[in-house]
Amino acid sequence: MENTTPGINSGEEGNVLTSLVLKGSLFCLILYVVWIYVDSYYDLGPRLVSKNSSLRPYFLRKCLGLRSPFLPTVWAYSPHVQTVLSAVVCPATLPRFEREYLELKDGGVVALDWATFEEQTLKDHRAVVVVVCGLVTTGNAVARVCHGAWRSGFRAVVFRPRGHGDVLLTTPRLQSFGDPSDFREALEYIRATNPGSNLTAVSLSTGCGVLISYLGEYGSSTYLTAAACISPIYSAENFYYSNAISSIYRWILLQRQKLSLRSHVSCLQNVDALAGTSALRAESMAEFEEMVFCRTNGARTIEEYWEQNEPTREIDEVAVPLLCISSKDDPLVPHESIPTELFLTYPHFFLALTEKGGHCGFFEGFQPDSWAERLAFEFLRAAQKLNVATTHVHSNGNGTMI
């Protein structure tokens, strides 16, 4: 009698095997991703590095970002991807900018770009946060920070140094790495035109050099309630001379500097070091810094220049809360160059240190959103509340210190 039991042909066997392989591969991939996350974030970071003062528990209580784990976007786990995202991610709602040009005492010019939105007018009475631009701060990053400021209840104004971007250079002097004199004049103007406003400041990357220098140089008379720096360069000299930074990043930064110089050659043509545009042939950031910024800012030697421009040169004079946000995998700021002892010594210094995040990245969620920028504004808002409470106590003797 003939057997009528249906069989499985070779094609069906192949389909079943392929399906099993695909499912197994997907399962292994999921396990791998979970393992990476558990392995890297078992301590549920970030780690807050600070002196054990009365300010520490206050900011831990007020800043959700200091108590919540930072888990980077799964597809942007690499520090290099995070770093690239910092330059290209922009908000869904782009701000419009109302520009003011400010002429400085020496005839130089800086720009102040007031960020506005559809529902906001230039006469908005929100607290003002000053966004300090650096050489590598892109337009997308500026728009994203201004949008984050608006969502957090701030009104943002972008400080654009002389000669940066489309700001005309009117004197043969460029903004050096850590010279806060132009920023001081800009803040005096902002304060005078916005009486009663509770001023704070935020910066990214190289722009942090000016902000940290300013806090140290002017101490208790900064006009600022607090400041936040995302991926700051703690030691400028090491940054320019270090071989720990990938050559591709050094090349990109050097090209950005040269591109900026090309638009100002006519104004700088009488500076001896730039005769024949020789600086455009510089082969390193350190060489370019010495040929251009050292000479245009009147320093006789490169050693003297760094003495005048190291961001932490007057660090013991800082008198307002400062939050620095850094990542151990930052490709531009090696982990060993982060001065953790500084944050353990001075009561106004706070460091949010993460395992991952790249340089100015710190993006989380499938649709990238900056955890660091959100934390920065939480910190500034908390510092403002503390300042108001302290002022109230000192003014009338009532209330309770936080």
UniProtKB/TrEMBL annotation:
This is Protein ABHD15-like. Belongs to the AB hydrolase superfamily. AB hydrolase 4 family. The chain crosses the membrane at residues 20-38. Signal peptide: none annotated. The active site is at residues 205, 330, 359. GO terms for molecular function: monoacylglycerol lipase activity; short-chain carboxylesterase activity. InterPro entries: AB_hydrolase_4_sf, AB_hydrolase_fold, ABHD4, Hydrolase_4. Coiled coil: none annotated. Residues 124-340 form the Serine aminopeptidase S33 domain. Keywords: Membrane, Transmembrane, Transmembrane helix.
